[in-house]
Amino acid sequence: MAATPHSETTTVEAFDDTATAVEKPAPGHVRLSVGPGEHGHNPPSHDPDRPDLSFPFQTTDIDRAGFTDEYRVTSKTGYITADLALRPVPSHYHKLPAVLADPEKALRLKQVKLVTWYENDPEDPRTWKNAYKWYITFVCALSVVSIAFATAIIAGDFGGVMEEFQVSEVVVALSVSLMIIGFGIGPLILAPLSELHGRRPFWVAPFLVYIIFNIPCALAKNIGTLLVSRFLCGLFGSGPFALAGGAIADIWDNNERGFAVALFAAAPYGGPVLGPIVGGFIGETIGWRWIFWVNMIFAGVVACFCATIPETYAPAILLKRAKRLRAETGDPNITTEQELFRKSLKEIVVETAVRPFQMIATEPILTLMSLYASLIYGLLYAFFFSFPIVFSEGYGYNDGITGLMFCSVLIGVGVALFVTPRLEKNYIRRAQAKGGHADPEDRLVGMMIGCWFIPIGMFIFGWTSPPAVMPGGGNWVGPCSAGIPFGFGMVVLYFSANAYIIDAFPGYVASALAAKIVIRSGLGAATPLFITAMFHNLGNGWAASVWAFISLALIPIPFCFYKYGKWIRSKSRRAA
């Protein structure tokens, strides 16, 4: 091929006058000719009909470009032509992407080469050895556990903080609530940044800031310092919540990530349960300030593990490859969809800060499913405040022994870990029975199983506690054992609800999950502020029963969506 001077418009400029232009090759560079188009093919472990969680939803203008399997398919040439790769966003209203609807731009797409993985590509995280992928999965889950652990560890010695700063329990409860609020805000910022710059930088930098803000927590001279520092801990410590699920999706295809996703689903619930167990004994023996020093040490160890996670985000890796290939070949048509159709800053802000609230207001499936899952999250934190009422005030146990009572919740979470992969296999069987195309409602099987265990656990907890069953002998087993059905139902229900939201809104996954995080954080932050007064005023039996009755009232939700979900989705512009 002869070298020719290059003076024509770059690829990005040809499709968007406001976009940042792709680097133009210097005159005299060789330009590759565009060969025949290639679709690429999906590996057997990936089902292209299910949402690709590695797709950069928040930073790619899918209204103009539509979707592509660029980040999942493999090809012999290492690229696929854009005219064959782009397709409409999966929703009830079929709408051709703007770039395909414009004949002139559609013609130009024939020259655009979207970079893909090669077959058995060593840079593709999915081809890494299973042992290494399980190590990354373990670190991702551990990072979520460590941050969730930090929210509840202070519950191990509320009394010490109340006594030192002479404040009420509600004020001290803000140290939990504000950190949860930070968790809700952080991912809205970190998620789009990780799409633009890759996941690896945000595994380390925000985590280090989070570790530093544990220092003013431990050295606080007043309650204001403690509360502000806890909020900042939540804000900067939210990285694993924004990154871990995506990183697991990066290295495991959707037909093989059953147990990996189960670990991730259990981590946000297992972590807070461990907090009071550890915090109770620390506060009882060496004081509440050491709770934060120990948490800081634990976070430092986890940060070291997080620093070993390589870049796993396919769009970031392929973008780097596209830039290298353009420099080597001089061909400006080598690019990625995200680079070609990147959203403006204003559009990204709307996607992350506005659209989630629009969807909460207009999508009943998203609103009710998020509300249900969030209620369970709030109930978990309700346990942290009701257990001390039952076991410290009712049985006279110290903080350490009271913390040990949470082990029952861990048992329930452990049982759920063995059930959730089987739910995933059940879903795949249902998909195969329907010709390879399962309905999102097939995800609700787990919710229809797990929803019964929440009220069962709450009724057991309330009516086996004092004064219904007075302390003595082995009577503590009753309220303690309530954690087993609760822990099991909590994880199974959340796992299924999360999967249903993803499958029901495949074109708006990022916004749907952001909406769920907002609702979850709101309920999780509010619960600690009134739960103690609720149990004191209503009594253990009726306070727990109120939550049980609320849980019972929500049980019809998965069953109604299982029957009518398809019809409801047909009325939505965003649902599948």
Automatic annotation (TrEMBL):
Q: Which residues cross the membrane?
A: 134-158, 170-190, 202-221, 227-252, 259-278, 290-314, 365-391, 403-423, 444-464, 484-505, 517-536, 542-564
Give the matching CDD domains. MFS_Tpo1_MDR_like (cd17323)
Report the GO terms under cellular component: fungal-type vacuole membrane; plasma membrane
Basic and acidic residues: bias regions: 38-52
Q: Would I find GTP-binding among this entry's keywords?
A: no
- Stated name of the protein: MFS general substrate transporter
The answer to keyword Transmembrane helix applying to this record is yes
> For the region Disordered, what residue ranges are annotated?
1-55
Give every Major facilitator superfamily (MFS) profile domain span: 136-568
| Ranges annotated as biased composition (Polar residues) | 1-12
In which compartments does the protein localize?
Membrane
Please provide the record's keywords in A-Z order: Membrane, Transmembrane, Transmembrane helix, Transport
GO MF annotations, alphabetized: spermine transmembrane transporter activity
Membrane topology reported for the UniProt record:
Multi-pass membrane protein
Q: Which PANTHER family match?
A: MAJOR FACILITATOR SUPERFAMILY, POLYAMINE TRANSPORTER 2-RELATED
The organism's lineage?
Eukaryota, Fungi, Dikarya, Basidiomycota, Agaricomycotina
